[in-house]
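Objective 1.3, modelling of assemblies. Example input:
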Amino acid sequence: MSKPIVATASLAGCFGCHMSLLDIDDRILQLIDLVEFHKSPVDDIKKFTKMCDVGIIEGGCCNSENVENLRDFRKNCKILVALGECAIMGGLPAMRNDIPVKECLEEAYLGSPTIDPKDPKIIPNDDDIPMILDRVYPLHEIVKIDYFLPGCPPRADLIWEALLTLATGKELNIPYEVFKFD
Amino acid sequence: MGNIAEVVSKAVESYQKDPTRLLDVIRDVQDALGQVSDEAIVQIGHLMNLSKVDVEGVVTFYHFFSKSPVGKYTVYLNNSAVAVMMGRGAIAKAFEKEVGCSFGSLSEDGKIGLYDTSCIGMNDQEPAAIINGVVFTNLTEKRVKELVTGMKAGRNVSDMVKDLGDGNNQSELVKSMVKNNIRQRGSVLFAPYESGSALRKAVAGTPEDVINEIKNAELRGRGGAGFPTGMKWDFCRRAQGERHYVVCNADEGEPGTFKDRVILTEIPEMLFEGMAVAGYAVGAAEGILYLRAEYMYLKKFLEKVLDDLRKKNILGKNAGGKTGFDFDVKIQMGAGAYICGEESALIQSAEGKRGEPRNRPPFPVQRGYGGYPTTVNNVETLCAVSRIMVEGGKWFASMGTVQSRGMKLLSVSGDCDKPGIYEVEWGITLEQLLKTVGGSGAQAVVIGGPSGTIVGKEAFGKKVCYQELGTGGSVIVISKKRNLLEIVHNFMEFFIEESCGWCVPCRAGNVIITNKLEKIMAGNGTKTDLAELESWCKIVKGMSRCGLGQTSPNPIATTIANFRSLYEEKLKKVEYETGFDLLKSVQESCKVANRKPKIEGH
Ligand SMILES: Cc1cc2nc3c(=O)[nH]c(=O)nc-3n(C[C@H](O)[C@H](O)[C@H](O)COP(=O)(O)O)c2cc1C
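Predicted structure (tokens):
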């Protein structure tokens, strides 16, 4: 049997979950033996060229590009995993959800103290820039998500065990302490 | 409107800088200035030796306090489910049209503010609103027009009340159009009662005798939870403390409940005497009536009743003629918060703080008001106490069912011919009740309010009693022409609004649950969504800190159990359905940035 193919992405996240993935330390060598990485910041492959077995996504969706990316993952991955608080609940970026988008954009581009008074006062609107969504969405509100790995970030052990389970089909063996947070 | 410094210092002085009276201080400032601005907050804090955040925390916690101006005239229109059923929508539109602003805002000239408010205890005479503390019931579009014209002309709000209600609503000190609608009188509450007779009997024996009599009556609390009153008093009496307190819970916030309002209007003597009996039993010298802000219109009248009772020596020094037993009652007003009906939140609020529930243990009977042992009892419970003193526990226990003794006041509203107050023996079946109130043929009955149970006709044979269908008194009849899920949705919005926000399962969970419900109602739900909705209900119920979150999913949980097909027929037969609409979700930001949404390829 060929190795399972894994793709990963960070949407409206901070890459902290990917950092946590690297925290599996030397087990990364085992991981390389176990799976093949496809589209992912880990190997910098930008486009899907084949069907993947597992897609792992960090961060929620705050703009149209995130949505596009997420839908692309759903199309190209058999199993989709939401990794971490932002992917599962929206997380820190979702703190803007109670503030009207207009206010957010005006604060960021027109009213903020770091604006150079000499610059023209506009809210960026080039067609190449992703469009901001009315609020930050968790992944499962946009596409079907198969598994959720909680944490901010999820602990390396949790990510490791979950990947191992998905790659080998062995039973999930995660002590409660690994995903208990208070 | 006066000068801020003057108004604040007058308010602070009239309560002697007592921090437990912070709510009263804030209310006076709010009434005088139409808002409690940052400046006022700083000054209140300064004069009362409290931090700014302490004061601000209280101002922002309660519905009837506002940092921004709410107008010279402030209209609070009830948005409970029954208000909506009775035509609140058209009334709201009429207000908006006449005033020229939408709900949640202030008219351009800053004179009239329109705001929603949770159930104001008038479900049997909806649509209803409170304007500057004055209650207007059975509103029509024509009446709204008159009211707004009056407000625009600067008329005094109480002068705009036309016909007065019945009974003590006509009293010089009440003068309200509210109706009692007492439809059925029983032998415990609405039977003739001789003022003073209960306390006389009580003080003739020992406090232990009183507690035993209440235990013999097997009286259970009428506020909803049904805790045995005798046992509660026993715990309180035995608890160590320099002082003990009796607190009467007149917060009556459960949508659809209004029986306490009628007790307060018609038989307050019996209630206050019950408080004195409780005081004697637990060893308290002070009682506090915590009255919801919505019932402010009864305050002067109740103060007068207290004065009369003092004159008759039912309250005061050597109360009831018992040497050494001093007992008096003061009234503490709430300020608009359902959670303040929860006993530990109520105590916090009565102490002048944000109405956030406390951790338990210690229970209020161990450490309650001011840290002293306190018994918190519902209005109706304390009235029943008076009757039990006179007629005896055995007499009381001969009525009702095995675990639900005596009689119960029901507040009946919704789709029935005769909404109002019914004093019934525990154990009446829903069927009998529906027949009595003219609500046969109902699709569903909400028993115990939103936090209770929603049942369909399979359950109409069940009895109203703790073992089968328990209730604090709210009974809402829902006819076949109603969309039950919309009513469920109204209940969920109520809980979202009223959650104190302290714990995550309740603060966030109720929103998540409601979003899921909306997804299903919009036809975007799947089997998985329904399953998730059910498990969210369990999470919120199981993990919330107090009774609010422990019961708030009930409207959904009980309708999924009893009306499953209402949900299932809305489900899409696909594995997953998003409900997310990219084009819609980028509209706002594109408009602000002045660009055209482009979503091809997405
Ligand atoms: C969210 C919430 C709201 C409540 N509201 C009321 C209320 O308005 N009136 C009331 O008597 N009890 C209310 N209760 C119940 C009280 O916590 C308490 O059990 C009751 O006042 C005790 O009095 P009783 O034993 O005489 O019923 C509420 C409880 C919760 C959790």
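Chain A has six helices and seven strands.
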